[in-house]
Amino acid sequence: MDRLDIRILDALQQEGDLTQAQLAERVGSSPSTCLRRVQRLKDSGHLRRCVYLVDPGKLERGLRAIITVVTTGHGRELREAFAEKIRHEAAIGLAYGVTGEVDAVLYGNFADMEEYQEVCDRLFDHDPHVVRYTTFFAVERYKEETAIPSDALAAKLGEMTADKRS
């Protein structure tokens, strides 16, 4: 991993469908080098997959909800069973087990309130391990960025390079 790899990661996070020639021009390298580097970044797990981001409203799923969930316990079996239910729910796009006052945070895109209620009935209302859930409906979008900053990795690489020179 070096600074060229970081530039490639940054470029692909902004626009994942760049051709090798476009990528090479953006990062200051050759297309063949970029091709090899991208494959290596895939093989190492730095690049997990390439997707397009779709506007939920264009798919008639404009009701955005952030749902927090409190459960009765924190045991592995309970967490795994809950996670398995969530994985099978198409309207839920993101789901995290978290620390703090709640046990899970979910993000969903729903067609309407009726679908939202059906999902909540299925996931929470009939689950004896769910103490409560709270929903926050998104009414404005302030930021919706999927790129992960590479500054921490770049700083670490800079430190490692400096240590080698010492």
Overall morphology: elongated
Task: Supply the CATH superfamily name of the largest domain.
Answer: Lrp/AsnC effector binding domain/regulation of amino acid metabolism (RAM) domain
Q: Give the topology string: H per helix, E per strand.
A: HHHEHEEHEH
Strand order of the largest sheet: 2-3-1-4
Structural class based on helices, strands and sheet pairing: alpha+beta
> How large is the count of helical segments?
6
- Profile the largest sheet: 4 strands, antiparallel
Radius of gyration: 21 Å
Report the top-level CATH class of the largest domain.
Alpha Beta
Topology (SSEs and partners):
Elements: H1 3-14, H2 20-27, H3 31-43, E1 63-71, H4 76-87, E2 92-97, E3 104-110, H5 113-125, E4 130-137, H6 151-165
Antiparallel strand pairs: 1-3, 1-4, 2-3
Helix pairs in contact: 1-2, 2-3
Could you walk me through the main structural features you see in this protein, from its secondary elements to its overall organization?
The protein is α+β, with helices and mostly antiparallel strands and 166 residues long. It contains six helices and four strands. It has helices at 3-14, 20-27, 31-43, 76-87, 113-125, 151-165, and strands at residues 63-71, 92-97, 104-110, 130-137. Strands 2-3-1-4 form a four-stranded antiparallel sheet, covered by helices on one side. A hairpin with a 6-residue loop joins strand 2 (92-97) and strand 3 (104-110). The protein is elongated, with a radius of gyration of 21 Å.
